[in-house]
Amino acid sequence: MTCRLIAAGLLGGSLVAAWAQSPDAVPPAASPAPAAPPAAQKGFLGSDVPAFDPGSEGMTWDGKIWNIQDQRVFRARFEKYLNAEEESGAEAKKYRDQFKEMLDLLSPAKMSKENFRKAWAILPSASSYEPDAELCNSLDDAIFGVLLAQQEVTRIDDQNRSLVRRKDTLEWNSRFAADSSLLGPAPKNPAAAEQWNREQNLKRDMKMQPLLTELGEVNASIAGNRVKKEALRLQAKIEFQVLIAQLFLQRRFEHVLLANRFYRALFGDGDNQLRVADDYAANQSAKNKESFGDLAKLPKTLGQLDALANEAIRDVREGVESFSFLLEKSELKSAAERLSEAFAVGEYLPEIRLLIRAKKRSVLEFTRKSNQLLSALEVKDYERASTLVKELETTSQDFDSAKPLAAVETARTVSALHLAKARAAATSGDRATLETELRAATEIWPRNPALAEVSGAIFNQADVQQQALNDFERLHAQKNYRQIFEDKVRFIAATALHPEKQEKLKQVLDQVQLAEAALLRAAELAKRGDAAGAWESVERGFSGYPDDPKLNQARAEFTTQAAEFVRSVRTAQEMERKQQLGSSLAWYLRAQQDYPNSEIAQDGVARLASLILKP
User: Which domain holds residue 589?
Assistant: First the structure.
């Protein structure tokens, strides 16, 4: 469980930068954060290990609380995985066999120089497998860099041995020069003897000065080479450790195990201290730490990383087994949850990639209907919500319908109460209360079938009804749908006896509600800092209702915030209208690069690719 939470926490923090979002259905409202647990004594790992609340499915990590299955990024990736074909071909089998062979060759019991070379030689072949994303090639480059550093260390050692021999020679020559200067008798005359001593000292100094100068240079070179050698070794370790840490953060746990074994083969000194965090803290600014995360929260040794990776692999394997068992029992809700948890941790592990598509598709429909239920409850479409609840109860034996049905029945009861008050207000002639109660009933349940019936009975005065109908026709002719939506209670009552106008009003309300849903989704995405996704949500609503002032305002605002992405999409659309398919495809691909989760770009690429490849 620890590994599941660590990797899922890392997913939420790191994929914000790297992973795409898919602007599909209206996202459900964010789940309320669970109440903060009382302060507890920290364990030996402190607060670095996430805590999971199985009741609310909330996760607390690094001071933040979030729901793993209520993340739009995760839902998009998970649905893409459910539709993907299993990786069970010959190339996939060859790739997994190569990984097993490398791990076996580098195991402590079989480690040797020959086995190291054999394992290293397999890396280029393994990197050719497309899902590997050439990570084996990156590992190959890192190993080559370490070997180059070790060659340089060997060269420095050879140079130092030569310098030590030169140092011994210079020291002997210096001693000889000092001793030979005293040879020969001094004059007996005191004055001559003093002059002779000065001359001898001068000759000795002149002989020894070059030797001492060179000796100092040799000593300095030896000391400098020692520092350089240690720096090379440390730098090689840190660079390799950075790669291992990156693989861990990417949840490439098999690559972590392989890289750890290569590391121990390359650095046989037994030093497994993880220096990445120390080096990062010493060289990065506070702004970079905020942008890329606090690497100080990584484990302190490679052994801990290895253990966490193994635990994650075991946890994913157990999650997949649980998913298969629950699927056999037709408990789709629990099966989908177990699979999503396993996917969040080990998206790239064989246990996940080998699941056949038929099994995954069995939970896809359940997942989609669950998301549709959340959307229906959010936009207060309780008739649709009731239908979806019945379908989900039929599909899954473990679906809990208590919460959604409680929301539906509560809305129906409260709406009926407001309608009853509206009838009473109409009888007493209290127009202000009448409008207030009708507005409240409409806000609680906009699509309540009883609204039209009650409104028709209440607004029986011909002049009021006719004025409302005239206003509706005028606003409809002006395409001022927003004003109609703002005054929908009056128009619902006025059109109750006019089916053709009622249909027109329904179309207007549906259109504006779609615009409101697009604005709501855009606002949620903007809060998360996803300006491109917010613009795309508004753009889709704009295509259905281009005259809405709120959509136009939001569209202009998000256009400036995601200028590069918007420019790419609009250029692609313009090229497509001009039938310049190649240029349009290039711009759609650029837009997809700017915002990988763009449905507009994905649809454009698929559409143009079909046209280009069409015979």
Answer: 516-613
